[in-house]
Amino acid sequence: MSEEEAVDAFVLLRWAETEGQPYCPYCGCAVVYRVDRTVKNRKTGEIIGKRRKFTCVDCLKQFSPTSGTIFHGRKLEHRDILFGIGLWVNGAKGEAALHLCRDMNVNVKTAFVLEKKLREVMGALQHAEKLSGEVEGDATYLGGYVKPANFKKHRRDRRKAANQSGKRQAITVLRQRGGRTRAFVQTEKETAAKMRDLVEIGTTLIFDEAKAWDGLEAMFDVRRINHDGNDTRNYGEAAYSRDGVSTNLAESSHARLKRSEKGVYHRVAGDYVQGYADEMTWREDHRRKSNGEQFLTIVAAGLHHPPSREWKGYFQRRKLAA
Fold it and tell me: pTM value?
């Protein structure tokens, strides 16, 4: 794909409702004219095409296919962005920034910020609406690392305390059967307190025996499954599934997240946990779709997502703060 063809793809996806006919994103005017400028490759200096911009006849503002989107202020060429998204979508359990930067032949910081922006887009898709129908809920822990002591007699059994380092964070997942999955970096108790804002009234909630969910039984139709058999509230014999009551789908989402941490990313910093959780829930929900469908979904969603306040100029702000 040439740069011109990549720009054509951006224009078609950005203004799909008008069949690729641009209109002003600032005032909505449909009368615009095209302005082309010569573009050189930043690496080689070779002329690769023309930069396509549009000028609004009404407000006279100039805009490009990426203006006002998650790709606003880009430094990468359009075709490099598409190439990077294609590579990133292909990772069933994620794509490390070090791996992506080598395939794209860019700096690791460039790949890092591109991935973070895509995770922000995924998060917007996953949290766009409340869940309904039958919704499973469960929590797990992610991130952080406890270095084992040198001598065995000084080592602790880390299975007895999920958060010994103080860096591991609870991730609670709500997964609608046949629908979307939403992940929150908070405990089950914190999620239960906000449940009215997360699911529709009349939703059937399915949880394990954790006491954090007990207060919801007065507001929702709550079904429980006893996993460990030690609960005394008469939830039945210990089992993973009984009469259609299980949290297996929520736990499946946890499994994908943990496999990505262990096999792809290795370390997940606490400040970024929400982004990784949103990425894995999106991948879990779209696992049956083809790579092409996933690719078009992410590109189109990115072109309809506002500029990122967190990741636009991220490394420049960090340098100034230092």
Answer: 0.86
